Amino acid sequence: MSGNTFGQLFCVTSFGESHGPAIGCVVDGCPPGLAISPEDIQKDLDRRKPGTSRHVTQRRESDRVEILSGVFEGQTTGTPIALLIRNEDQRSKDYGNISESFRPGHADWTYLKKYGIRDYRGGGRSSARETAVRVAAGAIARKWLMNKYGILIRGYLSQLGPISIPLVDWDEIDSNPFFCPDAGKVEELEAFMDSLRKSGDSVGARVTIVVNHVPPGWGEPVYGKLDADLASALMGINAVKGVEIGAGFSSVMQMGTEHNDEITPEGFLSNNAGGILGGISTGQDIVASIAVKPTSSTRLPRKSINLAGEAVMIETHGRHDPCVGIRATPIAEAMMALVIIDHALRHRAQNADVISPAPDIPVWPGV
User: I need a labelling partner for 276 at 20 to 30 A (CA). Which of 197, 228, 317, 330 fits?
Assistant: First the structure.
């Protein structure tokens, strides 16, 4: 299986399956001298891990990260950093009934068509369990970006099913199990999820990520556009079916005079571009949103076929998130961090000595 390495200069190669002994990754290209510890990484892993509330999968994983290489006396050495997370709470027997059939909405059928073999236990390599190592690698990227440039990467749940969340209080996000930025919406979300869980169905969500303090000038103008790389990275998250940068699909309804972000000596007057123009950062906040589809695994019977091509009805048992979007925020933040650090290193390699002739523009809106 190819396609397991992400990035050009800051490269992450992941391995492992949902029900194997462990998952992990190798981070290659991290600059030396970064103070990093398992505790730095664990903070982000704890935000993503399962079993943290009744609204997500009850699989119990500590997600304790082990640093196997690349760190000496608390600092990165510039050599590959190997990270390992052991699986502790697999229930492979929950998936015995689907070994001979295909779950609608999952990668069961496509994996078998591509490889001729599939690990049906929890989806194997296609499981969202693999995203834990992305969060671990992203934690390293986030710390380097903060230390070097003061870059802050934050996300939040902006919609769950029919419930939209327009108010954003950054201090509220980590105070509830939904990553919801509005304390006044939490009770409504709780009631909705309780009802959904009882019904046996699932629902989708929207997650928004904001990156502050990215300098202007990062990104390539043609094949390495910053927004294109961000879109690719975010689309590569399990269950993501749509990505917006800035105004995104809302720009379809806008006029050019409304969408174009006017520039004044005091700064930009809006940020419909989401902080990126021509594939290059403007210095404004980078804003992206993802659409996460409803969880494909439900207890409700669905039509499918078995290995013989015969019609069957299938029910998916096991421990699943009724809304995978609830735990998607740390994953989306991590993928943003991995793209931003890669472009930071690429820009530094090519343009470290370039002094831009363009005037500095105060960024607005900002933090």
Answer: 330
The whole-model pTM stands at 0.90
- The answer to whether 332 and 316 have CB atoms below 8 angstroms apart is no
* pLDDT tens-digit map of 57-107: 655 668 899 999 999 999 999 999 999 999 876 555 555 567 788 888 888
Q: Which residues are CB-neighbours of 265 under 8 A, at least 6 positions away?
A: none
- Token pair for residue 336? 């943003």
Q: What are 176-219's pLDDT values in tens digits?
A: 999 999 999 999 999 999 999 888 889 999 999 999 999 999 99
By residue count, the chain amounts to 367
> Residue 360 has what DSSP assignment?
P
Answer whether 48's CB lies under 8 Å from 62's CB: no
The strand pairing partners of 16, in sequence order, are 23
Number of Cα atoms under 13 Å in the Cβ half of residue 340: 38
Peptide bond into 181 cis (omega under 30): no
Strands 11-16 and 5-6: antiparallel
How crowded is residue 72: how many other Cβ atoms within 10 Å of its Cβ?
10
Asked whether 57 and 5 are in contact (CB, 8 A), the reply is no
**H-type helices in the chain, by residue range?**
38-48, 108-115, 131-149, 186-199, 226-235, 256-259, 328-351
CB-count burial class (<10 Å; 0-12, 13-18, 19+) for 214: buried
CA distances 266 to 196, 213, 263, 357, Å, are: 48, 17, 8, 18
